[in-house]
Amino acid sequence: xxxxxxxxxxxxxxxxxxxxxxxxxxxxxxxxxxxxxxxxxxxxxxxxxxxxxxxxxxxxxxxxxxxxxxxxxxxxxxxxxxxxxxxxxxxxxxxxxxxxxxxxxxxxxxxxxxxxxxxxxxxxxxxxxxxxxxxxxxxxxxxxxxxxxxxxxxxxxxxxxxxxxxxxxxxxxxxxxxxxxxxxxxxxxxxxxxxxxxxxxxxxxxxxxxxxxxxxxxxxxxxxxxxxxxxxxxxxxxxxxxxxxxxxxxxxxxxxxxxxxxxxxxxxxxxxxxxxxxxxxxxxxxxxxxxxxxxxxxxxxxxxxxxxxxxxxxxxxxxxxxxxxxxxxxxxxxxxxxxxxxxxxxxxxxxxxxxxxxxxxxxxxxxxxxxxxxxxxxxxxxxxxxxxxxxxxxxxxxxxxxxxxxxxxx
Length: 410
Description:
mainly alpha
């Protein structure tokens, strides 16, 4: 005998896409309360769950990312800051006995130190958590099955030399790149001055005065174009508008490789000058230092230190400081917090310096070097006529004859 089916215990399986009227529900469920007219029905589909608000999560993530973003902004703003060439007063201040006090007092404004705020705070926070956990375990505030986080310091004693060598080699490799970039720009500046001197002294025809002026402008423009080529965010139009004519500047701005475009201007100008073949070939040989400078700068910009080496150093530092509070707990207890802070600030600072000088060109005073080249060439142009007039006057003047004993003859 079949058991009667209770409609309330096994209601039909309705699809969420149907719209049920109140009359249909009353027929299916006759035992509902008497005030059926005031009954409201809300159908919730199992296929469309309630949306979970992510506002709090997004706010937390934004707070966590605020400090790294602030740190990166300070770092990049420092990278864009113009450097200056040292003079005698700067060197006196540089080797002053009070330099240590001055450096300590300026720590809060150092971009290297401020850029380390996120990792140092993170590892210090980890040390606080580990110290709090060990304190709770030691004070029996947690169940007995919670272990005390401590370990022997022998692994750290064995791996400390490896970490030191990694940091030393990383910084040394970065400084080698900085030195290579400095030498490349030294050759470019010296080659520019020498090339301009050859043009000023070698081009003497009156028919070539306009081309001579244009050629000197192109020579002065090359270091500026190379500087804008290797430093991100440079405004080449603003830097060259006082050096080149408007039409020439438009051609340079329209080219994909601005330094090579200026070299092409120089090569074509040399062809139109009224020079002997030997003089023209000698001047064209001066362009080789420009090509060499472009090659070295582009190589330093496009090829960093092997990324595996950089990643290994970073991972080694992270693992070292994550486990440092556990290693030092038996000897230091809560002193692991300041110890981790000092260790992270010191070792990450060394690694940060290596990362910053790995790209050498923002570290060099390229703006002042370009201005110095232009000033030297303008000065050479201005003094050319004066020096020639003085030499012609000396050549025409009658030399005074002197006797062997130093007295003039009568």
